[in-house]
Amino acid sequence: MAAFDYEAINLDGKKEKGIIASDSLETARRELRNRRLAPVKVSEVSSKNKLFRIFERKISLKNLVIFTRQLSALTSGGVSLDRALRVIGEQSTNTQVKEHSLTLASRIEEGFSFTEALKEFPQSFDRLYISLVSAGERAGDMSGILEKTASYLERRSKIQQDITGALIYPAVLICLAFIIVGLMLIFVVPSVVSQFENLNQDLPLLTRLLIGLSEFISGPAIWLITILIFSSILLFKLFGSKKIYSIIDGYLIKIPVLKGFLINANLARFTSSLSILRNNDIPIVQAIEISTGTVSNSYLRKNLEESLIKVTEGDSLANSLSNVVEVPPLVTQLVDSGERSGELESMLSKAAEFLDLEFQQSTKIAMNLLEPMVVVIMGGIVAGIVIAVLLPLIQMNNLSLIG
Fold first, then answer.
1. Which one, of 330, 336, 367, 323, lies nearest residue 163 by Cα?
2. Phi and psi of 16, rounded to 5°?
3. Are 211 and 219 in contact (CB under 8 A)?
4. 76-80, 197-201, 372-376 — which one is most confidently predicted on average?
5. Separation of alpha carbons 132 and 31, rounded Å
6. Is this model's pTM higher than 0.85 or not?
7. Side by side, which strands form the sheet with 38-44?
8. Confidence class of residue 209 from pLDDT cuts 50, 70 and 90?
9. Lowest mean pLDDT among 56-65, 325-334, 347-356
10. Residue 8 forms beta bridges with which residues?
């Protein structure tokens, strides 16, 4: 699903601008007409606009959980959807939640469905969220669907917070170490080295390497390289093709240290998304299409899409998944058991729980190993600098003793 900028005329003859998520340009125009808007200009978000949208703020996952939970509570208490959105918008201290809520309330008051209104904010509400809301509207159980959606998002948020929390200490250590090493190379090393310049002695190799590194960091080249790296990353994010992303992700998923993390995290999202969609009567083909979209690793997503297309041809989900080498056999067996017993949604949920547990355990083990590794590596770097500075002094002392 792509994002489209649009300009349109409403029933009052006023011009409106915004963003709409749709599968194609023609579909976007049709959806605007369904909203009783006359399209004037509709165009896919350009690379220029993408540059600004990289920095565009969206509702964070944590705030999205709170927003969805509040909306569920208010609507289950008999408050109308538009009124509930206005209450959330007026009381929220978060700018994005406030703007989104009040805009959504206005759209519903204009006669749009909640599903149609959500499509104006594709950066905050993905296809999974919109599909679940659509299912809730069809079933007449909006508060129940929102509660289930909030629980699903809450699980994702908890995993995200656990990872962030685990990385804070190593990240602080690494930053402090880089600052200390940088200060030593820029200020301490040059002042010490200047004392050896008039000795007419060959400095040890380690000391010469340290001097070269110090001069490099102190010079303009380091800034040029830094700018070049960040510019390359930005250009790649803007113009990088899907094929390039797939190649890079393919290499990442084959690295032994990262393989387990990437597979478990992505497949957990896939199976839990598929479970909640099927639980709410989303057709299997559409549910698979939406669920594969939650897989962030493009290489794994491509493999899933190519294999799961067989489901549209009548093949079973378990058999299709068995052709994806990255999918653990236990997950395939659970899906097969679910299809045979008619409890597919339950088995998908169990598979997601298993994958989440595997991911959390491997993350905990990795973090326990990472912390001492960071200390040892950074300690080794600092020790290397100290040795490089002391070697000429030892060499001078030896020469004076010989003399």
1. 367
2. -120, 145
3. no
4. 76-80
5. 19
6. no
7. 15-22, 2-9, 38-44
8. confident
9. 56-65
10. 16, 39
Structure tokens at 337: 């058991």
Q: Which residue has the higher pLDDT, 16 or 305?
A: 305
d(CA 401, CA 403): 5
Q: What is the residue-averaged pLDDT of the chain?
A: 83
Q: Which residues make beta-bridge pairs with 41?
A: 7
Give the pLDDT score at 400: 62
**Matching residue, tokens 């790296």:** 229
**What's the pLDDT band for 241 if we cut at 50, 70, 90?**
low
By CB atoms closer than 10 A (0-12, 13-18, 19+), residue 383 is: exposed
All structural domains of the chain, each given as residue ranges with its CATH number in brackets, are 2-53 (no CATH), 61-155 (1.20.81.30), 163-403 (no CATH)
Exposure b/e, 42-78, CB count within 10 A at least 16 = b = beeeeeeeeeeeeeeeebbbebbbbbbbbbbebbeee
Distance, in Å, from the CA atom of 72 to the CA atom of 307, rounded to the nearest integer, reads 36
| Residue 363 structure tokens | 């993350």
Question: pLDDT for 110-130, tens place per residue?
Answer: 788 899 889 888 889 988 899
Per-residue confidence (pLDDT) for residue 41, from 0 to 100: 84
310 contact partners, CB below 8 Å, separation of at least 6: 319, 320, 323
The confidence score (pLDDT) of residue 21 equals 63
Residue type, 397: N
Residue type, 383: A
Helix, strand, or coil here: 30?
helix
Q: Locate the DSSP E strands across 45-117.
A: none
Tokens 């929390």 found at: 165
Cα end-to-end span (Å), the chain: 80
Structure tokens at 282: 């989303």
Do 98 and 89 meet the contact criterion of CB atoms below 8 Å apart? yes
- Percent of the chain past pLDDT 70, that is, above it, reads 90
Q: Which amino acid would we find at residue 203?
A: L
